[in-house]
Amino acid sequence: MLLGSLVHVATVKPALELADVLAAHFADYLKVAHCTAEQFAAVNAILKCRTAALGGHLRECDVCGRVQLVYNSCGNRNCPKCGAFERAQWLAQQGVKLLPVPHFQVVFTLDHRVNALAEVNPEAIYDLLFSTANQTLKAFARQYLGGEIGVTAVLHILRQAQDRLWGQTLQHHIHPSTALRTGLHCMVTAGAVAQTQSGYRWRKSAPGFLFPVVALSQQFRDAFCTGLRRLAQRGELRLVGACADLDVAALSQAMQARKWEVYIGKPPKNHRPETLLKYMSRYFRRTAISNPRLVALENGQVTFTYYDNREPDAAERGQPKLMTLPAVEFIRRFLTHVLPFQYKRVRHCGLYASAKRAVLGVARGLLGQPAALPQPPKLNLSEWLATFVTGDPGACPFCGVGRMRLGREFAPIRGFALWLLILLGLPVAGRPAAEPAA
Q1: Is residue 48 within 8 Å of residue 428, measured between CB atoms?
Q2: Which of 10, 80, 231, 415 is surrounded by the most beta carbons within 10 Å?
Q3: What is the Cα–Cα distance from 289 to 165, expressed in whole angstroms?
Q4: Taking Cα atoms as reference points, which of 183, 21, 40 lies closest to residue 105?
Q5: Which residues form the domain of 360?
Q6: Phi, psi of 371 (to 5 degrees)
Q7: Is residue 118 in some structural domain?
Q8: Handedness of CA 208, 214, 219, 220 (dihedral sign)
Q9: Which tens digits make up the pLDDT trace of 142-169?
Q10: Is the domain of 46 the same as that of 122?
Q11: For residue 438, what pLDDT is reported?
Q12: Is residue 318 included in any domain, yes or no?
């Protein structure tokens, strides 16, 4: 009798997932392209995620005694299977830090011609983007509000279609809105803490207005181009590959001669900052593509869905369409979204920076809150799952009466043992989605 008929695996494997594409064609990709250590690590983690190769734990019913195997997740931030619970925990933790005032959404975008430099020098370009946006916002806060604002910024890398459509088609770019490029989504307080002769006071921005967007865009553009030239003069940019013959001074001058777009969105209608924070959390640990968007993997071609922003639907999301790419090109585009090792995608500036905790306490007091921050909540995985999973995730799928209790852990299964389990019929990569739970 096959082992798969005796041992039940709770982990479900999607019909088609990114790991399938990588397993079938990553070796082909390595024949024609270079892969960084971070990209290798991401691919290795995705291939093993929720499989016997990462080990797992047992779940046992306290009534009928039936046992399930549950495989561990990889936890890599580039994995489309991971990150949902971490995103929810981040949202809960950040929520306690928010000041009880409306927040504007400000999105900074870069000229698309910096993309080649960003691909070769991701850390330098992304750091420059963060610092320039922060400095520009601080300068405008002093000029228009006379004080210090709070900012939470999240790096987002958008994809571009081959026909120059801006949509979810995996071309490397850094983004602001559906029509732009590489960018930074920022939550900005609609007011600032100002220090006057009589002490601190809270100065609110005008309703629906934060800063003049044209002037903000111009100052951001000029500061970024100046910073880019400074990086080149210091020799801090690697000019190799497609950038080998690049004249950074000429590039920055050409970009500075063009109009850059910065978007300032009004606070949500309910004025609750949690609404905007929830939207921002979509970009926290967001991967380049999710498994449900994959449609087919056939004859070395990957077909996936994307949204055509030229044809917006009722929700202004764009009409869903299909795109087919060679698997090697698909993998290349996916890997361009892998950030440098331990690179911080989310940063807090101004009042929300960790170094400004005392000033944040002053702001909270001015707004009628206790100066000390409340203890951030720690989510329970089972309770969190119950908020969106149909049925009781802790109920026994066999008898329907008992509760599944966490049992022993087991180590990663590799090498000969892994192949033996495959021969015996155990679904080491998770049971197929169509297979019944019990």
Answers
A1: no
A2: 80
A3: 17
A4: 183
A5: 97-288+337-366
A6: -65, -35
A7: yes
A8: positive
A9: 999 999 999 999 998 754 433 333 344 5
A10: no
A11: 52
A12: no
